[in-house]
Amino acid sequence: MMDQAQSLRQLVAGQNRVINESGEHSARIITVCSGKGGVGKSNFTLNFALSLKSLGKKVLLFDADIGMANLDVLMGVTPTYNLYHLLGREAGIEQIIQIGPEHLPFIAGGSGMEELFSLSESDLNYFTSQISAVADDMDFILFDTGAGLSKETMKFIASADDCLVVTTPEPTAITDAYALMKVVHKSHPHVPFKLIVNQAFDTREADATSEKIRMAAQRFLQLDIPFLGYITSDTHVVQAVKRQIPFTMAYPNSVAAKDVRRLTLQYLSSQRPPAPAGPQGIKGFISKWLRRK
């Protein structure tokens, strides 16, 4: 069996051949956020990434939660390296990118995230070149951010091509999701939000939840927020978390898994090119995200 680094090198090499033959390519940068914790944001991000991959998309998953990184736990994977080792130049990009279920490449978060915001110019250029070596050849790069709205999360959201906001029908989750979008929109009116309702009892509850947020955004922010879809509350999700297997893999015929697949197709069909002033691929994203200006 080939080791992880060898597997990744072959993956990247194959992608490079496609890119070089097809011309310029720019990965779409997606941040996934929530107004509060406990809404299933990370679980959604993981299964959304796997759903994109199942449709033939090249996806890189980045655990960008500084305080509570847990994507590796949801996958049942113990990372050998994380971002800290890259920043300390103890390991290269091929080593810190771990391989999850269905050969999903991901970068473990936690240690190293805070250091990103105080890099020297030389270290920042090194980080950009390392990440670009792989990320520029991806179709999508998903950043699972921390819950709530820290200054770090604000930078992620403002720099990305899309921001998926995950909420639930709980009143506090609805209020916090709207508050997050309100604060971000005030400083960065260009951010393209898309709304996802998780843990909905049925279609009616999901529609009612999304309508509350969308109507408030239209009335007070003059902002039209597309409703991307919902995921039904499903006991299979809890069982999959306990097993540390993504629910789209553990229970592919479950209601929640079917909802994620439907939502993924809806996302792909609703894509729009980034605004000219927006980030262009991972280099543009990092420039906006971490540059001092």
TrEMBL record:
A Pfam entry, by short name = AAA_31
**Superkingdom:** Bacteria
Task: Quote the CDD domains the UniProt record gives.
Answer: FlhG-like
Q: Which GO terms describe its cellular component?
A: cytoplasmic side of plasma membrane; cytosol
Molecular function per GO: ATP binding; ATP hydrolysis activity
Q: Which GO terms describe its biological process?
A: negative regulation of cell division
User: AAA domain spans which residues?
Assistant: 28-188
Q: Which UniProt keywords apply?
A: ATP-binding, Nucleotide-binding
Coiled-coil ranges (or none): none
Stated name of the protein? Cobyrinic acid ac-diamide synthase
